Amino acid sequence: MIDIQEYKTPQQTNLLKNQSGKKKLYIETYGCQMNVADSELVVSVLQKHGFSVTDDIQQADVILVNTCSIRENAETRVFGRLELFKSIKKKKRNLLIGVIGCMAERLKKQLLEDSRMVDLVVGPDAYRDLPKLVAEAESGQKAINVLLSREETYADLSPVRYDSNGISAFVSIMRGCDNMCSYCVVPFTRGRERSRDPESILREIQELLDLEYKEVTLLGQNVDKYNWNNGEINFAQLLEKVALKAPNMRIRFSTSYPQDMTNEVLYTMSKYQNICKYIHLPVQSGNSRILEKMKRGYSREWYMERIEAIRRIVPDCGISTDIITGFCSETQEEHQDTLSIMQWAKYEFAYMFKYSERPNTFAARNFPDDVPDDEKTRRLQEVIDLQNKLSLESNQKDVGKIFEVLVEGTSKKSEERLFGRNSQNKVVVFNKKNHQIGDFVQVKIVDCSSATLLGESL
Ligand code: 5AD
Ligand code: SF4
Asked: Which residues contact 454 (CB under 8 A, 6 or more apart)?
């Protein structure tokens, strides 16, 4: 999944916030887009029970932090935030602090025991229980529910998009993950894979259309495994239904999994103009022995064939990836294979990480974390340097082209410029003229950096 910090867009003033007389919820979200979608469900559940959202932490009656466990530093960041919340609680005794999401699931009771200031611990499948748990906590008991479910998809709940730009929304199409990559904590924190009823997905798309949203991203840990009613509807078919339902909306999806990504999905992408030409296809490593140790289920050659299929069927597709450096026993030569596959695939963009051992995963139980930290860092830097070069080269090829850009906001650097994304998910900055946030604008690219395309609207 893609880290949401990359996706922050300007907040819209939301009438749902700070309604007087209601209890006030302050919610902070870390981790992936799925967590953003989950926080919107949490607000939906609590709003029905007398809460409004505040973005002023000092006003809060309840602080919830929706957490991520994917790497150790994700957890460290949250522990840092908890210290701040505790200092606020010292001055405001009846303030409740809750940890929800993946860390709640992974650390469970330990969070309540180690940290006497935490009142609530709620895992990703227990959000419906929040009103009851908050009430328990209000009465002075510690409240916890970390049960994972095989069925829960929150299908009937309408998320409250309290922190949205009003343009782009996430819709969760499945939950959990059955892949069991050896390094990954997600199957433990989010449980078994399950698909959401397509009718409820389409209903949510209709709600977004009614609210004049312009873009939707279908979310799942591995969207290619979407499967409704024992094969009645697969991911390609769902994608088609969504594309037909919202012909004037941009459709994106994340995350694809190399072993499961079918040509059928690629043909559906090429058939519908409103499905964005962008795929996030995490490779993790370019070496087949490491991939096997990671239990990814594909080899270097298999992965390369999938990239070739994308280039063949969706020729103008932007491709991004995730990379882990310094996985257990990775040698210099194996690391070179990662660099060479990056060079070969010419990724538009990559999310790059040092391997972080997560307790109880297959890798933690079976393989020593034996690449020294400074070596992981050195390899990571090489990967980052190469990706910067590849991103720049890819952007340079776009100079002179014309793209349709969906405007998301005003550029941070200049009030006179707007920014948005093209279909390939590249950020484009251009002159404002009379264009508005939410418009689709034709932009001719005149210059670029490794991170951004610069253009003139036509
Ligand atoms: N250490 C480092 N990176 C990890 N990822 C997942 N687990 C770990 C880990 N233990 C990365 C993968 C994944 C992305 C969301 O996070 O690259 O695709
Ligand atoms: Fe998302 Fe949980 Fe994975 Fe973090 S650990 S990326 S929050 S699924």
From this structure: 428, 429, 430, 445, 446, 447, 448
Q: What is the reported pTM?
A: 0.95
How many angstroms is it from 101 CA to the middle of ligand 1?
17
Ligand 1 within 6 A of CB of 324: yes
Distance 295 CA to ligand 2 centre (A): 18
| CB-ligand 1 contact for 3 (6 Å cutoff) | no
pLDDT digits (tens, 9 = 90+) for 341-389: 999 999 999 999 999 999 999 999 999 999 999 999 999 999 999 999 9
Which amino acid type is present at position 400?
Answer: G
CA 213 to ligand 2 centroid distance, Å: 26
Whether the CB-CB separation of 355 and 323 falls below 8 Å is answered with no
- Ligand 2 site, residue 31, Cβ cutoff 6 A: yes
Chain-centre distance for alpha carbon 63: 22
pLDDT in tens, 100-119: 999 999 999 999 988 778 99
pLDDT digits (tens, 9 = 90+) for 244-291: 999 999 999 999 999 999 999 999 999 999 999 999 999 999 999 999
Domains, the chain, in order of start with CATH, read: 23-145 (3.40.50.12160), 168-397 (3.80.30.20), 402-457 (2.40.50.140)
CA distances to 41, 130, 293, 421, 455 from 437, rounded to whole Å, are 25, 35, 46, 12, 16
Q: Please name the residue whose Cα sits nearest to atom 1 of ligand 2.
A: 32
Please state, in angstroms and rounded to a whole number, the distance separating the CA atoms of residues 414 and 422. 20
Which ligand is located closest to the Cα atom of residue 294? 1
Report whether residue 326 contacts ligand 1, using a CB cutoff of 6 Å: no
